[in-house]
Amino acid sequence: MNRNSLGSLPLSKAITGFVNFKNAEGLANTSLATYKRTLEKWVEHVGDVEIGTITGKDITDYLSWLRGEYTPQRFNGKTHPLSPKTIRNVWITLSSFFSWAKTEFNLSTPMKDVPPPRFKRAPVEAYTQDEVERMLKSCTYSKEAKTQTRHKFVMRRSTAHRDQAIIMMLLDTGLRALELCSLKIGEVDAKTGKVEVKHGVEGGAKGGKGRVVYLGKASRKAVWRYLAEREDGENSESPLFVSRGERKFTPDTLRQLIKALGDRAGVPNAYPHKFRHTFAITYLRSGGDVFTLQALLGHGSLDMVRHYAQIAQVDIQQAHRRASPADNWRL
Fold first, then answer.
1. What is the span of the domain harbouring residue 92?
2. Pairing of strands 211-214, 194-197
3. How far apart are CA 321 and CA 324, in angstroms?
4. What is the CATH number of the domain that holds 311?
5. Both 83 and 229 in a single domain?
6. Helices (H) and strands (E) in the chain — how many of each?
7. Model pTM?
8. pLDDT digits (tens, 9 = 90+) for 50-84
9. In this structure, is residue 327 part of a structural domain?
């Protein structure tokens, strides 16, 4: 079968080839599952037709159907339309699929006739310094307990040093949840602060992009203090952070931990990715440049970094309005 005749390949087989290709690139399992699920949902709608017959109109009609007629069933039993961001993500997946098909089968991509759906980016949430300090303090002691037979009391939490190290590392590096959970002890140099984020399944780096990030002195101390308590603290192949039962952290258990610490500290809407936003905005406020920030965050493009830069600039403008000597002194 020559390359051009592969345009008659059913979509289902082409999707299998695409997912295998992405797997070979080293994409994380969660990303692979998202690609597969999105493309299979698309095939359910358009049918298992030949890949070479898909047109730009077919893609446009599908995106319009998702926006206007499709109502997914949620896990909580409620039904509401897909968000504009989710529809944009479908477009991104289809674009990636047809870019692969263009190279693999020498086919013209129908995506050239389909503009990316617009969406309003959700506001970026960041922690304040006071919120982070309260969460760090909440790591040390349990909530105040009340009993009928004794006075109120609090207990020191056995995971205090671990939880503080997690918060400090998330804040200081801007790591994604999966990246933090995938780290091994040997990938963190507590002396120099160098942290090696591996690409793909092994390291959890999104888009198969590994990178190096760094910890400051306070964060290095927090990690060292935590590892000093671990029996396997010098085993380079052990997970950096483990939950109860010495099990490796997962993004879900990490989210549960951060939410619990936020609840204990009185910090609403606490979640791991919020530390990534906090790192990015604080980095720019402190004089960092967008290109270095892009490398530290592992972004393939400057789009999100520019968004952080816009927020940081607004903050600077607002701070200047409050602190302007000429205005405050009524000159």
1. 4-113
2. antiparallel
3. 6
4. 1.10.443.10
5. no
6. 14, 2
7. 0.71
8. 999 999 999 999 999 999 888 776 665 566 788 88
9. no
Judge contact between 153 and 144, C-beta under 8 A: yes
Q: Judge whether 177 and 279 are in contact, CB under 8 Å.
A: no
C-alpha distances in Å from residue 281, one per residue of 105, 129, 233, 311, 322? 43, 12, 33, 7, 19
∠ CA(20), CA(21), CA(23), 5° rounding? 60
Contacts with 65 (C-beta within 8 Å, 6 or more apart), sequence order:
45
Tokens of 44: 């359910």
Domain containing residue 50: CATH number: 1.10.150.130
| Nearest-angstrom CA–CA distance, 18 and 42 | 14
Q: Residue 208's closest CA among 181, 166, 178?
A: 178
How many CB atoms are closer than 10 A to CB 208?
18
pLDDT (tens digit per residue) in 238-290? 999 998 778 899 999 999 999 999 999 999 999 999 999 999 999 988 888 88
Does residue 16 fall inside a structural domain? yes
Cβ atoms < 10 Å from Cβ of 159? 16
d(CA 140, CA 163): 9
- Give the integer Cα–Cα distance in Å for 226 and 28: 28
Domain count along the chain: 2
CB neighbour list of residue 159: distance below 8 Å, 6 or more residues apart? 139, 244
> What element of type H or E holds 257?
helix 251-265
Give the span between the Cα atoms of 38 and 53, in whole angstroms: 19
Angle of CA points 298, 301, 305, to nearest 5°: 75
Q: Does residue 118 lie in a domain region?
A: no
Q: Could you tell me the two tokens for 25?
A: 């690139």
| pLDDT of 4 strictly over 60 | no
3-state DSSP assignment of residue 301: coil
Q: Are 164 and 312 in a shared domain?
A: yes
Structure tokens at 260: 């619990």
Token digits for 318?
Answer: 């607002």
Q: Which segments within the chain are labelled E, that is strand?
A: 194-197, 211-214
Are the C-beta atoms of residues 204 and 26 closer than 8 Å to each other? no
